[in-house]
Amino acid sequence: MTDKKQIILFDGVCNFCNFWVNFVIERDSKDIFKFASLQSSIARELTQKLNFDSSSLDTFVLIADDKLYTKSTAALLVSKELKSPVKLIYSLIIFPKFLRDIFYDLIAKHRYKIFGKRDVCYIPSNNVNKFLE
To answer: Which is it for strands 61-64 and 6-10: parallel, antiparallel or unpaired?
Structure first.
C-alpha cells in the first residue's frame, strides 16, 4: 500500500460495522483511512468508477491505489496498517480467500440479527474529518 489515503466503505446502518469503523479510527495512528457509508453517493461514485456493484451491503470495501478489495481481504489489508498487535491479524492472509470469506460471509449474513441495525446511517460525533461527504 502507498502513503495515499485509503477509503473504507461500510454499511452505515449496521451496528457491527460502525463498531469496526470506530475501532479502526482509534488505531489509525498514520492517518491513512477515510470512510464513507455504502449508502452514500460518494460510495456509489467510487464503486461505479471501479466497476463494482455496491447495491449489496453485505461486504466491507477498501479502496487503495485505485484498486477495490472486499470481504476478508479488505479487512486484513486494513489490519496491516493499524497499530500493533492488531496488525498481526494480517498474517491470516496466508489462508486462501475462499476459506477466509466463509467466515466473513457467515458473520455478514447474521450481523443485523446479532448486533442490530440503526434507522439511519452512522454520523460520527467526533473525527468528522475522517468521513467523506
So the answer is: antiparallel
pLDDT at position 128 over 90? no
Domain of residue 111: give its range: 6-125
Is residue 133 in some structural domain? no
The count of domains in the chain is: 1
Grid cell for residue 16: 457491527
* pTM of the predicted structure, to 2 decimals: 0.85
The answer to whether 77 touches 87, Cβ cutoff 8 Å, is: no
Q: Where are the beta strands (DSSP E) in 5-88?
A: 6-10, 33-37, 61-64, 67-70
For residue 2, pLDDT over 50 is answered with no
